[in-house]
Design the sequence.
């Protein structure tokens, strides 16, 4: 590597370290302290830069000296603030002697804050030093003599508390006490810790030296900048600057972004496709009467899908104040005997009070029924993406709260064949499918009814939706004289595949990471 | 939509022409045929030959069994309906009698019955009989409320049979599934079926019972059969079938289906003469099975117009005949009569669909609707889309939530108990508390995501635009559905002015001037919440979320949020 590309590859921290070698009169070897002083870097930054330079073979370890250093452990700090066990034992023995009381080893061992093994060790040491006697019955008696260990330990705790010191700086007897009371394997509860402090000196390698000299010569440390600033642009000083080159192959840092929800993005696409096909959007309420949710759709009041186990009923108020006329009377008549719809009707006693019962909208078709009753344009196409609710146990394939994409098409050219034509259009535009199958189907409010199956480019044959011509028992009572197509698309499965998820609950996930990282593809 | 389990070999036998050997059916062939019955093959177990089929049409109970499916396919293949002489009123056989006692009109008025001989019950056949009995009484008969069915060993019964009312302790028999005799009252209190279906007879101090000429109980409809007479076994070749219920046409139709099914398996059906003390829609004497004789005369033009294709009277007649109808054409019309096991003809459109199914949907080429229509989004959707675009531009991640949630999250965790803000539309028939009320504002939806995302890279900026339900006594539905946009910022230093800046941008670009008025809202820190007011109308709230709310949601960073009612914003000009 030539010298300039070597220089280019250096990080600012590395430049500082090499520059220190270049400007140092004392030669090719510098130790850590000298480097810290010369570069003014924090210990962590310095060691990072040194590691990098060693890895690049620009620097090598010259010498390594290991010095044992004594410091206090948390236990030691506690002893320093209070008393060490040996001091406590000695004090207890002396106070027992003063009052003439008996003191056993067991008494001491059960004393709060004293560890039995510490007590044994202290008693042993004090007995050896002649500060204690052990008499019959395991009683301890003070001899009144001092304990050199206890006294030295106090002094040492004070000295080390003032700051870590090299072990060698202590006199031999103190060193022994320190070693004896130092943390070692199997015994963590000691006041002292002896660690090896590693001091290194580094020798600059020939390539490093060349770089160092180059750096000093061109004063690279001074002229290199990492960021272009408005001042540089203003005074033109950028011309004299050297811009540090970045390692652009690194991963970009993460940022938090604003974007649409992937499932909503999918629904937005469907929405814009429907608008482009000439559909107008309808809106409806989350809470509906049974009338608009079912009666107006010619679902008899005894229909199983109206059961307490299929629809959510509202607790309060239970009923709407009224249902608009003339629709209520006409629909009631259609249920009873067909009225003027040409039907025999369901032939049962239609309950007008039941019609007012409030439910959570269970099908998007309720929105279509409202639209039919509102004097819609003819010809016209309508759609809604309506939130619906079903009394269903929630699992990987069942949601209790979901979107339905539904709508109607009305016009005097509407018939079974134009219904199939419309479904063909959906297959092409919504699912990009060329192959379609039309299967006979059943919906309470359409006759004839069709199920649309398509060959999806990725999913193979799948059901895309259901449709049919609204029964005259639906349209005529609502005042619509032309034939009407009712259609619905089942898009959840397509959405799940597009978004790469396998559990329908994940469409409404609360996992922000997942929402952020799921790609909205359609 | 019932799903039934049938066997391929059974289907093949039933498909065979009278007296001919059965032919194997391939699965693709079967799937093709199932279009005739709106059936979908859900599962095929090759080893056992078991087929699970879902039948879509809830108005065609005759198709919810192997016999019915086979019949619909067979008519098409043989191009005519098999003769069922027992449906015709001209048959002069001496009938067995079933007498209905007075009083039943208040409890469970109607009964229909027939006898079946010459078909020996096989294990498979018995399973099918029981399955049909269950599907018809559960789904078509509304869990036995309107229709229930009993099957018996004919040889054990002395005619005439009586359908009458007795006091709960005035009759006893050994019910199916039990070892000892029990009174009707005991059955209601102890027997599993009594516990399951007893509510149908609640409020009646006298209960229905079927007994034969020497007083032997047949059953306690619609609860349970007698074990002695009402436990049909493999090998039996003489059966008695009865249907009781509250709607005579449905009762008769159900019996007709059973009679046709047994006949298709080779039985000879004997009619039963049912005598009522009162007048019924079919008179005081009703001999069953009985053709319901449902007929409509339909102009060919009506059919052609609805289907969008010229078909012609002859082709219409043929299509309907191979679908089971009896058809009489006259000038420009056809008179179409349903077969006796069907009653689903309310409107000529029902016949139109049968013509299309019989000819096959593939026979109709799709045509695009040609009339021009203008598409477009509603005003509120446009407004919501605009707000969403602005929120995304301000760096907010959109979320979507369930609208149905729990009072615990929507009210309790928001500190809104006993406040106007805490009022919600709640569900009466709660299945799970987690899904028992509609959200009344957006903030809980946002906190739901925040609470679950403590490990996701910060800062968090979230928004959702969507519907909420706000209780309103003056509204006909008791609540208003309105579209709101809610946004929340969550990170270690999130505060009021950061979210305020976002609100400011939102309103600026929505073209509306707003003011903030201090408000005491329990979900927000006091002194750090404001009501958003436009043209004197409050339409939202902004503030720093109350630490107790954050604690309840176990959110560990501050959250600042707003909630703006777009529906009300749109109404302000």
Sequence:
């Amino acid at each position: 590597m030539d010298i300039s590309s070597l220089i280019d590859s250096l990080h600012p921290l590395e430049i500082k370290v090499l520059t220190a070698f270049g400007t140092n009169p004392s030669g090719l070897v510098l130790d850590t302290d000298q480097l810290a002083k010369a570069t003014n870097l924090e210990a962590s930054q310095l060691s990072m830069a040194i590691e990098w330079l060693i890895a690049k073979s620009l620097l090598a370890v010259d010498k390594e000296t290991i010095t044992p250093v004594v410091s206090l452990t948390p236990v030691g700090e506690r002893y320093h603030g209070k008393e060490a066990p040996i001091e406590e034992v000695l004090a207890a023995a002396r106070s027992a002697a003063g009052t003439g009381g008996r003191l056993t080893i067991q008494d001491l061992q059960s004393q709060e804050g004293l560890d039995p093994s510490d007590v044994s060790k202290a008693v042993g040491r004090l007995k050896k030093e002649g500060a204690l006697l052990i008499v019959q019955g395991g009683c301890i008696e003070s001899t009144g003599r001092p304990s050199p260990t206890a006294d030295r330990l106090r002094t040492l705790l004070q000295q080390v508390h003032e700051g870590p010191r090299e072990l060698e700086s202590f006199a031999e007897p103190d060193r022994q006490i320190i070693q004896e009371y130092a943390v070692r394997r199997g015994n963590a509860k000691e006041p002292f810790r002896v660690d090896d402090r590693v001091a290194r000196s580094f020798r600059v390698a020939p390539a490093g030296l060349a770089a160092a000299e180059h750096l000093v010569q061109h004063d690279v440390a001074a002229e290199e900048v990492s960021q272009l600033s408005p001042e540089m642009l203003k005074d033109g000083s950028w011309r004299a600057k050297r811009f540090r080159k970045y390692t652009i192959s690194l991963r970009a840092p993460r940022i938090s972004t604003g974007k649409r929800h992937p499932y909503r993005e999918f629904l937005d696409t469907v929405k814009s496709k429907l608008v482009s096909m000439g559909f107008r959007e309808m809106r409806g309420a989350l809470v509906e009467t049974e009338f608009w949710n079912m009666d107006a759709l010619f679902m008899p009041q005894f229909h199983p899908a109206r059961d307490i186990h299929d629809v959510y009923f509202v607790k309060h108020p239970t009923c709407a104040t009224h249902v608009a006329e003339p629709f209520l009377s006409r629909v009631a008549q259609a249920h009873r005997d067909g009225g003027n719809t040409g039907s025999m009707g369901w032939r049962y006693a239609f309950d007008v009070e039941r019609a007012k019962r409030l439910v959570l909208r269970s099908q998007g078709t309720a929105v279509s029924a409202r639209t039919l009753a509102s004097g819609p344009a003819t010809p016209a196409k309508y759609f809604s993406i309506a939130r619906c609710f079903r009394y269903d146990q929630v699992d990987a394939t069942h949601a209790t709260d979901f979107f339905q994409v539904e709508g109607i098409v009305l016009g005097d050219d509407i018939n079974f064949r134009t219904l199939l034509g419309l479904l063909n259009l959906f297959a092409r535009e919504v699912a990009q499918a060329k192959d379609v199958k039309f299967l006979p189907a059943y919906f309470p409010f359409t006759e004839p009814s069709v199920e649309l199956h398509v060959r999806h480019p990725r999913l193979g044959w799948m059901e895309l939706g259901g449709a049919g011509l609204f029964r005259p028992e639906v349209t005529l009572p609502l005042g619509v004289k032309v034939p009407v197509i009712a259609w619905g698309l089942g898009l959840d499965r397509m959405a799940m595949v597009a978004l790469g998820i396998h559990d329908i609950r994940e469409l409404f996930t609360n996992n922000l990471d997942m929402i952020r990282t799921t790609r909205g593809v359609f | 939509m019932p799903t039934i389990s049938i066997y391929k070999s059974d289907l093949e036998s039933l498909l065979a022409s009278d007296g001919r050997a059965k032919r194997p059916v391939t699965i693709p062939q079967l799937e093709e045929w199932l279009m005739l019955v709106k059936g979908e093959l859900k599962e095929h177990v090759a080893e056992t030959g078991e087929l699970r089929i879902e039948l879509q049409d809830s108005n065609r109970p005759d198709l919810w069994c192997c016999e019915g499916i086979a019949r619909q396919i067979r008519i098409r293949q043989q191009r005519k309906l098999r003769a069922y002489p027992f449906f015709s009123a001209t048959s002069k056989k001496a009938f067995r009698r079933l007498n209905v006692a007075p009083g039943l009109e208040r409890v469970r008025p109607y009964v229909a019955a027939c006898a079946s001989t010459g078909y020996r019950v096989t294990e498979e056949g018995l399973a099918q009989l029981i399955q049909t009995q269950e599907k018809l009484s559960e789904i078509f008969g509304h869990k036995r409320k309107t229709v229930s069915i009993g099957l018996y060993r004919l040889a054990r019964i002395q005619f005439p049979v009586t359908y009458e009312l007795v006091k709960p302790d005035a009759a006893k028999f050994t019910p199916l599934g039990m070892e000892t005799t029990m009174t009707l009252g005991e059955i209601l209190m102890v027997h599993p079926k009594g516990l399951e279906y007893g509510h149908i007879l609640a409020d009646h101090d006298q209960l229905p019972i079927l007994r034969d000429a020497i007083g032997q109980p047949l059953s306690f409809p619609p609860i349970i059969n007698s074990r002695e007479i009402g436990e049909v076994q493999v090998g039996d070749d003489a059966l008695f079938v009865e249907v009781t219920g509250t709607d005579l046409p449905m009762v008769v139709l159900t019996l007709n289906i059973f009679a046709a099914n047994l006949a298709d398996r080779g039985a000879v059906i004997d009619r039963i003469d049912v005598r009522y003390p009162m007048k019924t829609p079919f008179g005081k004497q009703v001999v069953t099975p009985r053709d319901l004789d449902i007929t409509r005369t339909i102009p060919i033009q009506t059919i052609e117009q609805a289907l969008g294709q010229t078909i012609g009277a002859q082709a219409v007649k043929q299509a309907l005949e191979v679908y089971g109808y009896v058809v009489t054409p006259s000038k420009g019309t056809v008179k179409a009569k349903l077969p006796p096991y069907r009653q689903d003809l309310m409107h000529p459109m029902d016949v139109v669909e049968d013509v299309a199914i019989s000819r096959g949907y593939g026979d109709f080429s799709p045509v695009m609707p040609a009339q021009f229509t203008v598409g477009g989004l509603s005003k509120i959707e446009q407004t919501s889309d605009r707000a969403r675009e602005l929120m995304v531009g301000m760096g907010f991640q959109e979320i979507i939530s369930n609208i149905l949630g729990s009072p615990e999250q929507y009210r309790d965790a928001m500190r809104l108990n006993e406040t106007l803000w805490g009022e919600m539309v709640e569900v009466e028939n709660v299945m799970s508390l987690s899904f028992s009320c509609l959200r009344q504002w957006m903030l809980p939806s946002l906190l739901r995501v925040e609470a679950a995302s403590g490990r996701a890279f910060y800062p968090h900026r979230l928004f959702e635009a969507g519907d909420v339900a706000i209780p309103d006594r003056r509204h006909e539905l008791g609540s208003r559905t309105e579209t709101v946009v809610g946004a929340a910022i969550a990170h270690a230093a999130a505060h009021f002015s950061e979210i305020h800046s976002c609100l400011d941008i939102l309103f600026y670009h929505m073209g509306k001037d707003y003011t903030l008025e201090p408000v005491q809202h329990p979900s927000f820190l006091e002194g750090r919440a404001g009501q958003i007011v436009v043209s004197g109308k409050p339409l939202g709230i902004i503030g720093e979320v109350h630490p107790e709310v954050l604690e309840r949601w176990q959110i560990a960073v501050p959250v600042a949020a707003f909630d703006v009612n777009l529906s009300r914003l749109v109404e302000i000009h």
About this structure: The first strand of chain B starts at residue 3 and ends at 7. Residues 123-140 of chain B form the longest helix (18 residues).
